[in-house]
Design goal:
Length: 498
Amino acid sequence: MAGMKMPAPDSGVIARRREIVDRLRAIVPGEGVIVDENELRAYECDGLTAYRQLPLVVVLPSTTEQVSRVLKTCKEMGVKVVPRGAGTSLSGGALPLEDGVLLGMGKFNRILEVDFDNRCAVVQPGVTNLGISNAVAHAGFYYAPDPSSQIACTIGGNVAENSGGVHCLKYGLTTNNVMGVEMVLMDGTILRLGGKHLDQGGYDLLGIITGSEGLLGVVTEVTVRLLKKPATARAVLLGFPTNEQGGDCVAAIIGAGIIPGGMEMMDKPAIHAAEAFVHAGYPLDVESLLIVELDGPAAEVDHLIGRVEAIAGQHGACYSRVSRSEEERLVVWAGRKAAFPAVGRISPDYYCMDGTIPRKALPLVLQRMQEMAERYSLRVANVFHAGDGNLHPLILYDANIPGELERAELFGADILKLCVEVGGVLTGEHGVGVEKRDLMTHQFTETDLEQQQRVKCAFDPDGLLNPGKVFPVLHRCAELGRMHISGGKLPFPDIPRF
């Protein structure tokens, strides 16, 4: 798998495959257990297609009670479990294991309740992100996080990866828009965290679950916050002669105290690819393009548009256009949201990165990435959630040319190391998965990682849920919890122990 090491498969578990399948079929009858090799191919990878592995078996439960029994049975048999939603993850978070059960949550696809009085909806994890907004649009509501893959990605996967989207700058990531979850632990225990009420006191367990990448439990129900659609929303297109000028403008807009509903940036290769694909009316004679959306009362939006255009002019903008209708605004965003598939038309393969930096570092990072592209002899198209510093460089390569995939991976690793170097982090919304797992030591110390693994151990002491992801070296829980004794004495003997 392109040099990516995963936990060594347990030959004893593989030898018990027939017994495992029989136990699972007793829980999920009919076509809910998949064992045929050709049918398993559909689950061999997620959106990070460079890494592939057939699972031992796939099980497709349809009720929380079935999920509970499946997990409990796998724990009793010592079998690993990899939860999977729509499989749109770009970090390998749903990569199967040769000796593991892949738990597909695609049948959990119903909206259970829409509560406009409390401005929330209760949905199953297999409901698509866009499906929530479509279900409440008639009443003037929507669900704010909107990843580019929102037509396909599911809310359970959004919770696992803490997904964002073009409007997360003003309205927050998934963690800011999830009010509660029902989840199942590895031993079959069914928990409820949060709900329709405001935040409760004590540990923020809901915050721990959101973004936990399937390492702590399996989410079977989600309560999401609904927002009222703003009275007015207009998009401003701003073109610049250089990437650096575009980056400087981003920092200046935020520095002026303006928080747009969304602020996205694209460089020339991405602009040309998106325009050829969608025909959104993007200018083709600029090096960088900002899409700045202002929303709220009409008078406020008009005022902010004037301020944004003035700031852009001060930073060398050579193009400016404001959407004149809702249809035009949606077309502007359609171009941005189609940037990933559009880039697929200009390169046989591409590697989509995800890192986050301080906004002020954007011009420097853009310059350094171009230098890296020349060093690795690979092209890169840049698409950014510029307002919050979340970068999505698309490294273009051809997997049929020997060595290009490996160069693309090294290029991507250098980009992520650069993000940390300038004060940023390894991921903004795609998660760590297997893609960034071995880079975690560039951001965290050994003590940091051990503390994170202690949380993992509290939920999954046997390490059976999604092993091989996130942590570069996974310690056994007994090792993390051991007490060092020196000279026959415990350290700090005056501290009470329980």
